[in-house]
Design a protein that fits this description.
This protein is an all-alpha fold. The protein is 68% helix and 0% strand. It is built from eight helices and no strands. Helix 1 runs antiparallel to helix 2, helix 3 runs antiparallel to helix 4 and helix 4 runs antiparallel to helix 5. The longest helix has 33 residues. It starts with 5 loop residues before the first helix and ends in an 18-residue tail after the last helix. The model has no long low-confidence stretch (mean pLDDT 84).
């Protein structure tokens, strides 16, 4: 597989098209007001919730593959450059599981709507944005460590900047989101109007969520150039029963074709003297 650079591009396009498409569909269906709702609010009701969940699940699989390929890339670099083992090996291993946790959070957010299972939805959002931000910080640090072997210093600066943006707006999402729901006096949060209370905090929280989601997509897109020089071979598959049969056949054949063991020569007769 030599076109690994298409993975980050696919994740970026799939997530962006899903977010914008779901937002437009929710407005057309009259499920949300056009004034910048939360991404998950636009995917609360069917049919857009069904399409949103399906596409996001596909995106999570592709994103998990990106996380794994990045992990393997750093592992191979550590094998070729001994000076990277002490600085990046443990950090790279931890980043793998943090990245997988973020992918799991994205899937939970897509499949457990806020109106149905609120607690699970919020836990998924924390995994998605929280662990995702931590993963980006880890990759930003790794990007500096692997200089000058892979990437550029400019790209490392870009990842550091995007990590800072994610951190700031993630905090804004959490704080303003809690305040806006405390001040909300309306009937349906999906149709939040200025007269419902907490409007300014709601707008700040929803805009911050869109900024974080867009920053996530751009961050993944930064791996494109580095994946161009990678090639992934198909994994090796072994059938254990067949291997055992082959080993047994080899043992039998080796015994059949081996030369016979030399027989013990008869004892040399001794001269008998008769008196």
């Amino acid at each position: 597989m030599s076109y690994l650079y298409l993975l980050p591009i696919s994740v970026y396009l799939l997530f962006q098209v899903t977010f914008l498409g779901t937002y437009i569909a929710a407005i057309v269906q009259g499920h949300v007001v056009p004034a910048i709702p939360y991404i998950s609010d636009a995917a609360t009701y069917s049919p857009e919730s069904c399409v949103f969940g399906q596409l996001i699940n596909m995106g999570c699989i592709l994103l998990g593959i990106v996380v794994y390929v990045r992990f393997r890339q750093i592992c191979v670099l550590c094998e070729y450059h001994a000076d990277l083992r002490d600085s990046t090996w443990k950090l790279n291993s931890r980043a793998l599981w943090v990245g997988f946790g973020s992918c799991l959070g994205i899937s939970i957010v897509a499949n457990f709507q806020e109106t149905n299972v609120r607690v699970v939805h919020l836990c998924g959002a924390f995994l998605c944005f929280g662990l995702g931000t931590v993963y980006f910080w880890m990759q930003a640090v790794i990007s500096y460590y692997i200089q000058p072997y892979v990437g550029t210093m400019f790209k490392a600066h870009i990842r550091l900047f995007l990590s800072v943006v994610c951190t700031i707006f993630f905090v804004v999402v959490a704080v303003t989101g809690v305040i806006s729901h405390i001040l909300f006096r309306g009937e349906d949060p999906r149709k939040w109007y200025p007269s419902d209370g907490g409007w300014k905090y709601h707008v700040a929280s929803s805009i911050s969520e869109w900024v974080v989601a867009t920053t996530f997509c751009f961050y993944i897109l930064t791996f494109t150039d580095e994946f161009r020089s990678l090639s992934l071979e198909h994994p090796t598959l072994r059938i254990i029963e067949y291997e055992i049969l082959v080993e047994n056949d080899n043992v039998v054949n080796s015994q059949a074709h081996s030369p016979p063991a030399p027989s013990t020569p008869p004892p040399t007769p001794r001269n008998v003297i008769l008196l």
